[in-house]
Amino acid sequence: MMTWYHSWRAAIRIARRDAWRSKGRSFLVLAMIALPILGVSAADLTLRSAELSTEQSLGRSLGAADARLADPGYGTLPIMQTPDANSSTPVGDFENKPWPEGRTDINKALPAGAKSLTDSMGSGKLRTTHGLLNTEIRELKSSDPIAKGLMAVDHGRLPRTADEVAATTHFLESSGLKVGSTLTARGLDREYKIVGAYELPDALKTDQVNALPGALLAPLDKALEKSGLPGTETTTTQLVSLSGGFTWNMVKQANAKGVKVNSRAVALDPPAKSEIPIYQQEGWGDYEESTAAKAAALAAVGTVVGLAMLEICLLAGPAFAVGARRSRRQLGLVGANGGDRRHIRAIVLAGGLVIGFAAAVVGTILGLLLTFVLQPLLEDYMGKRFGSFDVRPLELLGIGLLAVFTGLMAAIVPAITSSRQSVLASLTGRRGVRKSSRVLPVIGLIAVGLGAAIALYGSTMTDQSAVVAGGSAIAELGVVALTPALVGLFGRTGRILPLSPRLALRDAVRNRGRTAPAVAAVLAAVAGTVAVATYAASNDAQGRAQYEARLPHGAVSVMLDEAGGRDMPAVRATVQKLLPIDVRADVDRISVGKANCSMYGGEEGCGRYEVVVPKANQCPLWMTDPAKPDEDPASKFSKAERRKLSDDWRCKESSGSGSIYADSGVLVGDAKLLKVLGIEDTTAEKALAAGQIVSFDKRNLDTKGKISIRLVTDTKKADEAASKGKETPGEIKTFSTHQVTGEPKSYGISMIVPAGAAKAAGVTTVPLGAYYSTDKMPSSEQRQRLDGELDKTGSNIELHIEEGYTSENSIILLALTVFAGLITIGAAGIATGLAQADAEADLKTLAAVGAPPRVRRTLSGFQCGVVATMGVLLGSAAGVLPAVGLLLAEKRQQLKFYQEALDQGFGSVHSAPYVPIIVPWGTLAALLIAVPLGAALLAAVVTRSRGALSRREAT
What we know:
The protein is α+β, with helices and mostly antiparallel strands. The chain contains 28 helices and 22 strands. The longest helix has 51 residues, at 854-904. It is globular.
């Protein structure tokens, strides 16, 4: 045992000395191994630090309170909840009943002797230096001991009087205000002074102001109601402090009164699953990730880590071979003084051990320092503060051991190769006869065949992309194993090349031990790049083919469903002022109930409208049987009948299908809207002028050629009737209609109602937005100016400029090309350095016989270019195949989904799948031409043209 210890101690000392002597090569290998370790250790530290303990999480949500009581919105009905209060449901069966809604008094659930603190939350538009900003408004006496921990004061202080507020640091940054500034809200003539800045540790990017209870929300609600504007939608919770804590039994008692509770005691000591009523209900459970899902995730992570380690080993292996080759005389002396092969192997392996250990230490320390220095930036990016700077030594040790293992694996092949050299060859510098392995190509060929078979099976017989990915990975590893044999095949092209490239190719083929790993490293990087690029380009083509324009190219729409369109006239004028507008078409919407009702809000006093579709025009697949309201209408048809009905005109999407910000596709407008949409129909223009509706969907017309619209004022009764399959109650308005002939592209608009016709029928309309055609496509500068002006309104404005399909993959393809290029140049450069060490005797001979100095530089360039070219060619061929397999599997999966949709009667809303296979020729051209050429030129530039002339050693 002591002999083993002393031999390895000596080997490590020799390896450490050699690493220090060859600083450049050592730094290169160390950087290759340390960079991934730096990233992984920093990621581990960041995730662990951001992962809060239960106590820390409760401190941020409850402060110093024992519980938070909240209204779940089910009225006074008893509820069931999960222990963490994230989910709740009312007690009872509501399958055939309207879902319960309403408020409950949470104060009735306060236990006797409990101290409580009211925490109210709403929202409103506050005036800033830039305009208006929609902001959370919180009323909480934050100086109360119960609220300790909810807000972290950054500077200043918390409010003490009714005319003071504090604001989050993010709000101050967004608004341009500061501590000491005056704050006002839209619609309220009262001023407040900002006396402090705070942050929410769990929500750093929240715009919020805090006032004392009753100081801001109630006065603002009254002012907004008086102005006919939407209110703050205030919700109130109670923070409770109670001696002994809020137990699970107390939580269930509060649930019986319709109140939801987030309890500290329950979170720290959860009850058994059998004691949780909600988990006893069908469809509920304490869900956990399945064992199969965990195994799949671990397999995916293991595959990625394994391939990354393989890439590093392939890149670092030749570098260790360079060191072993340059130290062959030293290794020969070890053998001459009694050392055997295992000692030689130990010395070379110790080089990997030393570099791996140094990379582990450097990468881990840099990861710790980087995370510590960048902690504020990381917290801002994640939007929350770290719980603590959580360093887990065992995890970091495991990451460091991975670096050591990688270094050892990278040095294995050079160690075995060096130990097989005879002492005489090492001392004299002779290279001897190198025989390539006959077993490795056979193994590689078997792996390629097996992987290709698995990938083919996955793409043609299953719809599992994981099978294709696994088979492709096996096949790629097989190609890596075949690389030495493939390098030999490349050598046959040398007879047709000039002197320098012929020498470079001959040298690469004769020394496959150093050429093959570098080519394999380039192959692996390029194969991954080509696979992802092919998949991305194909997805890009698929997205372009399936893209559905919302408007004609260059057209603009602006919509605002807020406060009954009060701010819409100013918004319309702003858009027309800042963009190159040709035609402007103002549009309104039908409103039922109060003037400030939103389109889909469902607030009290607000209704809705429905387009009455005649029964004869309704799709049979969608028609509910009043006698069986819970039955799926499509279930009474066979699969063949469903497929046939999918082609029925009543079940097809209208020709104007698209995305529109209007209920049922109904807009109130005039003939200008037709011009913006690019619909040239003089008859339709005349119909609008005559007060007729212009319809683009003939399903809405009755037998008399008219359209009926039902005005629903009582939405609860309407929902009850719909759940029972009965006709919805409401007043019906009938309009004379002109049905457009043909199938013009209406971009989701089902009908245009003239404003005069709506007024004559007694239908209320409010401003909704405007459509614009443009003289030219708005520029980026114009769009930015417009966005800035619209942001000042503080309203939720939806602006759309139709630019057509825009690809998001171009930057990805560029990044992949650059990545593959860097890997290629790095691997080829390492191989070239080793080649120069091996070819020094040949270069001396060339210099001795009068070869010009540029031959050395040219030879170096071609040596680098040969490695890069072989790797890129093999990688390009290996990368296209997995991408094609994945795309075929995806097409099979989409086709299966489409066939199921046809069988179920949904074929009318799904188009046949289109999954093209597109080869990214631009990326391939850059890899096949630009990268090898760049690598060759770079190697030629950095190589010295003259070497020291000396005696050529015997070989």
